Amino acid sequence: xxxxxxxxxxxxxxxxxxxxxxxxxxxxxxxxxxxxxxxxxxxxxxxxxxxxxxxxxxxxxxxxxxxxxxxxxxxxxxxxxxxxxxxxxxxxxxxxxxxxxxxxxxxxxxxxxxxxxxxxxxxxxxxxxxxxxxxxxxxxxxxxxxxxxxxxxxxxxxxxxxxxxxxxxxxxxxxxxxxxxxxxxxxxxxxxxxxxxxxxxxxxxxxxxxxxxxxxxxxxxxxxxxxxxxxxxxxxxxxxxxxxxxxxxxxxxxxxxxxxxxxxxxxxxxxxxxxxxxxxxxxxxxxxxxxxxxxxxxxxxxxxxxxxxxxx
Length: 312
Description:
It comes from Halomonas urumqiensis. By secondary structure, this protein is α+β, with helices and mostly antiparallel strands.
C-alpha cells in the first residue's frame, strides 16, 4: 500500500486552488459531474515532467495568490499559465522539473499569460478517493484533500505519496507544447446534436466570426459573446451533456460547458469542443478573442489519440 508523507504547508491559500486527478467517471447517472483538470494538456505535462503516471493528482491554481512552504525536499513541475511563480522570491522556470528544498517558499502571483497553472509533485499529492476519484468539485462537496470538496485554506498540510525514484532527473517540455495563451485561440468543434436546427445565417456567423470570452466563466462553463445564434427548436427534452458541449440558450449567446458542468441540459447544442479545445478555452482571460473551427470526428479522434499516446 502506498505511503503518505508530508509535502507542503499552505501559508496563503489564494482565491482558488483545487486538487484534481483525471476526473470522476461512471457516476453521471447519479447526477455527479466529472471534475478533473479543466486544462487537460497542462495537467498531463506537469505530471509527466515529474515522472507521475496518468491520473496522478496535481494542484490546479486559478488566478494565483497561493503560497506554499515545503515540509521536505521535493521535486515539482509547474505547467500551464504563467502566474509569476517564484521559489524563495526567484522566478521558477515553467514546463520543467525543479527541486524544492525543505523550508523553501513556492509562491504564485498574478496571471501574466493564461489563467490556470498546474503544480505536480513527484509521487503525486495524496488523498483518499471518493466515488473513484480525488477530483475536487466544491459545488458537490466531493473530493479534495478532505474528501468533502473543500478549497485549500491557510494552515492546511498537503501530503504527497512516497515515491521510490530519486526524482533528480531534469525534464523539460518541448517549445511546441507550450501555448501562448494570449494568442487568439482557434477552437476545434464537432458539429452535432441539434446543429441542423440552427438557421443558415447562424451557422455562417458561428464559424466566421470572432467570439469574446465573457466574465461569466468558471469550472462549470464559459459564456461566449458575439453574434446572436438562432435555433428553430423551441423546446427540447433534457439530455446528457458531455465535456465541451456548446449550448445555446434563448439569448443566442453560446455557453461552452466544462468539467464541473451539470449532467443534463435542455438547450440546443451547436456541437462539441474537442477535449484539447476545451482545455485551450479554459486558459482564456475575460475579453479574450476566440474563433470556432468545424472539424470532422476522424480528425478529432486522431488528435486525441496522439495526445494520449504521448502520456502512455
